[in-house]
Amino acid sequence: LSPPRRLARYDAACQIAQEIAEKIHERNRYQRNGESSAKLNVGIRSSLQNLREKMDQLKDSLLRAVSTHQITQLEGDRRQNLVDELLTRQKQLQASYENEGTEPDVIRSSLMTGGVKRGVTNPWLLEESEETRGLGFEDLRQQQRRIIEEQDAGLDALSSIISRQKQMGQEIGNELDEQN
């Protein structure tokens, strides 16, 4: 496939994913208002199938382009990252579609961030952060490992501090018992 055609396929898949997210949001709004959402469910199911087909086409064309050396390995990695992001998006949409009613991702993220963020209504519109932009798949994986190692070290230090405080609390309790 020519680069403009590949890009058009990718853009079409992104557009379908965006439309699915909007339909799921609309379906959930209908359900909260007690309205019927059966027609939307049929449309969402059809769009999800269409998105799966587009994803398969993107993966196949990328595999062919890399295996026939039509593109460089770096470009292949970049495109693979885009396809992986779209695949993650597809899985999230599928899970959101199957979980009718509440929107668990919004609820869960609001719990973790201290409330629903105002102004950001669609998570798919968020841009990639500067620290990860341009990194290859293996670079992202190494960065993720490094972050996890730092978090583990922080948790170990926190565990040590809490253990020390527990021991101090027990000693204070023992001292109070002796004084009483």
Keywords:
180 residues; Methane Monooxygenase Hydroxylase, Chain G, domain 1; 5 helices
Your description of this structure?
It comes from Ceyx cyanopectus (Indigo-banded kingfisher). Keywords: Coiled coil. The chain is flat, with a radius of gyration of 24 Å. Helix 1 packs antiparallel against helix 2, helix 1 runs parallel beside helix 3 and helix 2 packs antiparallel against helix 3. The protein is 77% helix and 0% strand. It has one domain: Methane Monooxygenase Hydroxylase, Chain G, domain 1 (Up-down Bundle). It is mostly helical.
Average pLDDT: 80
Please outline the major beta sheet: none
**Structural class of the helices, strands and pairings?**
mainly alpha
Order of helices and strands: HHHHH
Helix amount? over 70%
**Tally of separate domains:** 1
CATH class bucket: Mainly Alpha
Shape: flat
Strand content: under 5%
Let me know the number of strands: 0
Quickly give the CATH architecture: Up-down Bundle
Terminal-residue CA separation: 84 Å
Low-confidence stretches: 113-121
Helical stretch count?
5
- Radius of gyration, in angstroms, nearest whole number: 24 Å
The CATH topology comes to Methane Monooxygenase Hydroxylase, Chain G, domain 1
Domain T-SNARE coiled-coil homology: 145-180
InterPro entries: T_SNARE_dom (IPR000727)
Coiled coil: 41-68
Keywords: Coiled coil
